[in-house]
Amino acid sequence: MTKIHKFVSLKDLHTFKLPYQADAVVELTAAEDLPSLADDYYVLGEGSNTIFTTDFSRTVLKVGIKGYECSETENSFELRVGAGENWHDLVRKTLDADMPGLENLALIPGSVGAAPVQNIGAYGVEVSEFIRTVEAWDREQHEFVLFSQKQCCFAYRDSLFKQHAGRYVITHVNFSLSKNWRAQLSYGALSSVPGDASAKTIMKAVVAIRNSKLPNPKVLPNAGSFFKNPVIPRQQLQGLLERFPDMPYYPVDDMQVKVAAGWLIDQLGLKGFSCGGVSVHDKQALVLVNKGEASGEELLTLAKEITSRVKTRFAIELEIEVRIMGEKELINA
Ligand SMILES: Cc1cc2nc3c(=O)[nH]c(=O)nc-3n(C[C@H](O)[C@H](O)[C@H](O)COP(=O)(O)OP(=O)(O)OC[C@H]3O[C@@H](n4cnc5c(N)ncnc54)[C@H](O)[C@@H]3O)c2cc1C
């Protein structure tokens, strides 16, 4: 049953673990309850891509809809999964049941319902490849809607749900896992995995790589990549390469390239750089960590300092990837 709690600490509801509270938290366990809820809430999954930088004077709707149904056709396994299921548990469950496909996306923190929002991706694979439809509640039209894969407008870390932030509450995601499975090992870090490896072996390799590279939010609170990798015109790249010949970049199209935000921050010697209780991770410059007792103000000051130094040195404007929450709403929408 959906439950409403008043004045709830948000510390354990987001992985950066800042010590603020929300006026109320509604724990949503059934999609059918959505039409009768007062419509003034921020939708939250597991809070691994959201940071509360102050007390939140509205309601947080924590999506906890559970459920996992599985059927099969001649060519595929079809899954209907509740938005409140944990993403990595789903990956494990499918592989335990000999339904390969999601192995490259293992250990990405968060809920199933948030996965389509930014089209989670890792090691050469995006979740959109496996999504058949998404079920959601439309807060503007007050109706349940079903989006086909095409209607979700998936792109790199983007979707309809991100473009219309807050409009839809995803209740269930329907996946289709092809029985004609092929390992995806094209991504550099997985090149040492043998071509005939099973999906479970690939998952283990992905988990090992991730554990060696990224701080575990349960041990060192963080929200993953804090900044987006900036996209710049090729013309600007030429000038930068003359000054920084080692700068890594990846083509986006004929006109633009993507540069690695972590590399830019690292070049400034900012690994380990702190503002109060918030610090640039000492191994992964793209990740900011809460060393304990951090405040929202310290986080925003550090983010501003990094952005300003990157701008001065490289003339590149960094954009924050994580959803930063102010007192009433997103402040980096
Ligand atoms: C250590 C670490 C590593 C990470 N690595 C990766 C990675 O490799 N690849 C990657 O893509 N991401 C990565 N992330 C980011 C994060 O895991 C994803 O963005 C994930 O999908 C967030 O899930 P969540 O449930 O925690 O979302 P939340 O932070 O709770 O919410 C994120 C956004 O989705 C919205 N949302 C959440 N649930 C719903 C719903 N049911 N309906 C509608 N909107 C909803 C929220 O309003 C918010 O805008 C990483 C994060 C961490 C901390």
Model description:
It is a single chain. The chain has 333 residues and is of the alpha+beta class. The protein folds into 3 domains: 3-63, Uridine Diphospho-n-acetylenolpyruvylglucosamine Reductase, domain 2, CATH 3.30.43.10; 68-213, 2-Layer Sandwich (Uridine Diphospho-n-acetylenolpyruvylglucosamine Reductase, domain 3); 222-325, UDP-N-acetylenolpyruvoylglucosamine reductase, C-terminal domain (Uridine Diphospho-n-acetylenolpyruvylglucosamine Reductase, domain 1), CATH 3.90.78. It is 20% helix and 29% strand. The protein has 6 helices and 20 strands. It has helices at 87-96, 160-163, 199-213, 234-243, 261-267, 296-314, and strands spanning 3-9, 21-28, 41-44, 50-52, 56-63, 68-72, 76-82, 121-122, 125-126, 131-138, 143-148, 168-178, 222-225, 231-233, 249-251, 256-259, 274-275, 278-280, 287-290, 323-325. The chain has a 5-stranded antiparallel β-sheet, with no helix packed on it. A 4-stranded mixed β-sheet has the order 1-2-5-3, with no helix packed on it. The radius of gyration is 20 Å and the shape is globular. The two termini are 32 Å apart. The mean pLDDT is 95. Bound molecules: flavin-adenine dinucleotide (FAD). Flavin-adenine dinucleotide is lined by residues 15, 43-50, 63, 83, 108-111, 113-115, 117-118, 120-122, 161, 165, 168-170, 214, 217, 222-224, 323. The site of flavin-adenine dinucleotide has 34 residues, from strand 3, strand 8, strand 12 and strand 13.
